[in-house]
Fold this protein.
Amino acid sequence: MTVVDVHAHVFPRVSRAESRILHPEDGPWLREDGGGAGMMMSGTTAYRPVGQELWDPEPRLRQMDRQGVDIQVVSSTPLMFGYAADPGRATQWCELVNDRVLQLCAHAPDRLVPLCQVPLQDTELACAEVSRAMAAGHAGVHLGNHVGDRGLDDGPIREFLAHCAHENAPVFVHPWDMLAPERMPRYMLPWLVGMAAETQLTLLGLCLSGAFEQLPESLRLCFAHGGGSFPYLLGRADNAWHRRDLVRADSPRPPSAYLDRFHLDSAVFDPRAFRLLVEVMGPERIMLGTDYPFPLGEERHGALVRDSHLTPAERALVLGGNALRFFGLDAPRHDSTEAPR
């Protein structure tokens, strides 16, 4: 059985000088502090302390072996998106980041699978960059769930998603820039509440706007963090669609009719939540996601799936089979030699 983690982040080595490509003052960059420690920086502001697994493939691969993970599909940290920047600057930035991620993954190309990022604020430039990146060796694209006040159901962003379908580029969607931060200043509540709400907002926007009716069925979408609040409040959304014409004004079918149009990762951290996730989506629509290597990620990679109620065949799908098909990957020649701890 091949184990594939579809939700794993990297922050490739980017210097302070290179960060000015995106923004002269506040561009993101990596400060290496020695001894395997580092800091994600935003200009002169320290954003988050990190370990070298975030940028160095060697310790990452050793950790994958210890955790029993064969393949990671890696994406940049959302701090690097650059959606608020001038589109020209953002394009140069995305080219730099994408090339660096390719270099990182080239260390073990059968085990580290790169996703690109794009200047989503400009549809034409975003389409050009995803085409360039896919030709260069990326396996898909990593998107934030909105650009300012525009969600993925926005017309130009919808055009970009259609282009991804044309390019055979799978799309991994991550919540970011969470809503109402002024109401959640403490306890990491933007991550605990905002991320779940952002993902639910995005999925309902795609369902209720009629976007799924217009987007190609060949489009492959996966949403991080178990779809946020969406699976657990789907009944509420369906009830509203059936009872209120305001809700169903632009969608001919209720939200539950579109569950076959996307995948979710497994990062819900609780057996009861995972059981409901499987009941809503089915095991063929869920892929292992750990949020590695951040501290809010799954400590024992895949333990929630391995210890679940699923049959062995269903566990194999969630742990790797679905991801191999979704990203068009071959099982690696390497087999993890250590049992997961």
In short: The radius of gyration is 19 Å. The chain has a mean pLDDT of 95.
